Amino acid sequence: MKIIIASSEEIAKSASRQYVELLKEKPNAVLGFATGSTPLPLYAELVSLCKEGKLSFKDVTTFNLDEYVGLEPTHDQSYRYFMNTNLFDLVDVDKSRTHVPSGIDTSDEALAQYDKDIALAGGLDMQLLGIGCNGHIGFNEPGTPLESLTHVVELTQNTREVNSRLFNDIGEVPTHAATMGIKTVMNARKIILIATGASKAQAMFDTIKGPVSSACPASVLQLHPDVTVYMDKDAAALL
Ligand code: F6R
Fold first, then answer.
1. Number of domains in the chain
2. In the structure, what pLDDT confidence band is assigned to residue 174 with cuts at 50, 70 and 90?
3. Which domain holds residue 77?
4. Best residue among 35, 144, 180 to mutate for probing ligand 1, ranked by most atoms within 8 Å of CB
5. Is residue 95 assigned to a domain?
6. 71-102 per-position pLDDT tens digit
7. Over the Cα atoms of the chain, what is R_g?
8. Does 98 sit in the ligand 1 pocket, CB within 6 Å?
9. Is 236 contained in some domain?
10. 47 near 91, Cβ under 8 Å?
11. What is the CATH number for 222?
12. Residue whose CA lies nearest to ligand 1 atom number 12
């Protein structure tokens, strides 16, 4: 694991350079994206670089980590909507090659097809991750088998409470999500994990210093050969 401790602005700049390098080498790379508050500064930086002509997404294929079950892609809290408004509509990506798990068709076939589509596209070249306060990656909550592929999970009360900040009240937060599995994530050739804020400090300690265990799903990243972890000072406070 390569560990970088920096300010949120520096993290966005440094991580964006990984996209510039990868896309220079492989313009048609397959990129795995995440939602949530953490990647927003990075997405803003990627948008700027694209506007300045220093980066192009025109030949990439993308797969997002997860989606709330029951939310239509047009719902303003759906992760498809988040990606469109924070990245896809602002860069030169071909939207027909952007994928977000369906929150509506969560049949076994549709979930299995998501992994098949990733494989058909050539596999993920680089997967971006945030981390939950409980160590979740994607929506793989503690206890998720490390061998899991794309599946539906029941969100923990803690995750629903944390994410309720974006809804009118907790009753509106979906109870389930479709998410890439831990194995799907681990199959990516390169992984970037970003953690900012004191609420992530314990999870980052467990991820880096704890045992590899499904109790902290992100700890499995210790077994991946190419992970870059970016943390701000607050997220790194217990290390
Ligand atoms: C988002 C995702 C989640 C978030 C995590 C942190 O697609 O899969 O694992 O990365 O919940 O969320 P924020 O960044 O809002 O703290």
1. 1
2. very high
3. 2-231
4. 35
5. yes
6. 999 999 999 999 999 999 999 999 999 999 99
7. 16
8. no
9. no
10. yes
11. 3.40.50.1360
12. 36
